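Example record

One chain of 388 residues, shown exactly as stored in the release files.
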Amino acid sequence: MQIYLDYSATTPPHPLVLEKVQEVCTADWGNPSSLHSWGNRAATLIEMARMQVAGLVGGTNPDNIIFTAGGTEADNLAIFGITSQFKTPQHLIISSVEHPAIAKAADYLETQGWQITRLPVDHFGRVNPEEFERAIQPNTILASIIYGQSEVGTLQPIEELGAIAHKHDVLFHTDAVQVAGRVAIDVETLPVDLLSLSSHKIYGLQGTGALYIRDGVQLQPQLFGGGQENTLRSGTQGVPGIAAFGVAAELATENLVTESIRLQQLRDLCFELLADCKHLQPTGDRNHRLPHHISFVIRDDSPLRGLTGKSLVRQLNLAGIGISAGSACHSGTLSPSAILKAMDYSDAASLSGIRLSCGAQTQKEDIEWTAIALKQILRQQAANLLPT
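Predicted structure tokens for this chain:
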């Protein structure tokens, strides 16, 4: 039995997505900047996808969507597209639980003299809106707060945070890569100026993303060339990936309500089945959480304290179950998860984080079997610690 529970990492392309890719690669492979019919067909596909992706986030103007090579580039375009317009360093606010695409961009800006405020979070991974407002300074020009945290599943109060930013005339960006297609987004009412998306999180292809840019927000291009994507992202567009993104976005929009409910039921079932496991402690916010996301650490009072998430990933993989871990490996040495450390977990717990994420192919039986397998692995690990 093979059970894939790593949908937060990537999703398998939908069959209709693959059909579209095949169609584009065999019939509509022209350069979309060319003026002949081959180019016109490709350009039409891109504009159709722009409408479909705009629809995914409730947008009414497709021109607000700029296609990129993925969520990381979208995040970088948002951050550097704003900050590079200033001749002297200013002030930027992020959270302490951002994706590396934001966190490392901020680290770089700090080396260039920018003042960076990294907002603390509570033990559930949430930013306090009052602390956010107190952090705003006269020279704050941008705030970037992740919408849904990929490692622990916590959803931030983006509507409240964005409203605070706008009250102080601060631009607001959010990384919605984990949220789009799982939680309803309406950029027409949500107070965000910039919002990042990724195709391969919603059953599209890897290597394609998008940045939503509200009307009136000006960005400095980070790639220069032929002026594609409204001059903001030069380079011949990857038509197959963009067309696939459009199909995936339309399918996600159509299925969002029913699929979100189904995923939430699977998520809650998993938490329920593992609630009696004395070794595991859930992480993240149970009330404000991505509908497909389950995460744990090993409890500090467990005899298994010191067991790493990487080890659990390997052992579940041997059982045919795919999950992920939060700690990072640098030069062969494990480092505690920066996200869990920011949430005030111990070093040992921060090394032990695991994430299970459900998706389109996940069934109730998959969750039940995974819970049995994980408990068995933990029992065996505990038995190995008993004196002989």
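Notes: The first helix runs from residue 15 to 27.
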